Amino acid sequence: EQQLKNTKNHRSSVSKYDFVKVLVYLSGKHYYVLSRFLISRMLTATQVDYYHAVRIALDLKKRLVDCNELELSQKKLEKYLFNIMKEYGYTEKYTSLYKLISGFYRERIPMIILISGPRCVGKSTLATKLAERLNLPNIVKTDTVYDLMCSIFDVPEENREPIWYRNCSTDELLEKYEKDCELVKKGLEADIKKAFTEGKSIIIEGTHVNHLLYD
Fold this sequence. Notes:
Elements: H1 2-13, E1 23-25, E2 31-33, H2 36-45, H3 50-66, E3 71-73, H4 74-87, H5 92-107, E4 112-116, H6 123-134, E5 139-141, H7 142-152, H8 170-198, E6 202-206
Parallel strand pairs: 1-3, 4-6, 5-6
Antiparallel strand pairs: 1-2
């Protein structure tokens, strides 16, 4: 019974329009196949309501197929899309944000998002929600990197203890924190280099994040 229910749900999410390919040209030779899923994900990233994002993506595909627009430019695609967004009540604020995010994806411009703060304030939750919204698969936790770097450089166990557990002055605490952040930054260099060379965005979250080291 459950399998039958899942099959029905799957069928309900599939449209006959999904079997028609629409090619979107970025230049004379370079193109991609339009995906309803990716369109809806980018729309949700621009704060469009999830239900509206799914409907807008479907309406876009329907309109293109019905108008026999099976090969079109990115600019023309966005014109169709933005007209549909207006029909759903979304203003220029949303279309401008969509252009920005779409540009990141097309040009493979990496985003390096830093989320810092003390423990138990919701950093991991925020990172997960951002990753879901922006369709980013890479989340790096600084606690894991810190433990790994301490092992590599044979940092004594007593020096690995969180700074807030120590009885030290404010200056000593800040000095230790900055050194820990530098150690983590060194451990993240390969990930950051990969983000720039491959155009893959990354979210770095944890206690040991000093944004001044990444500027």
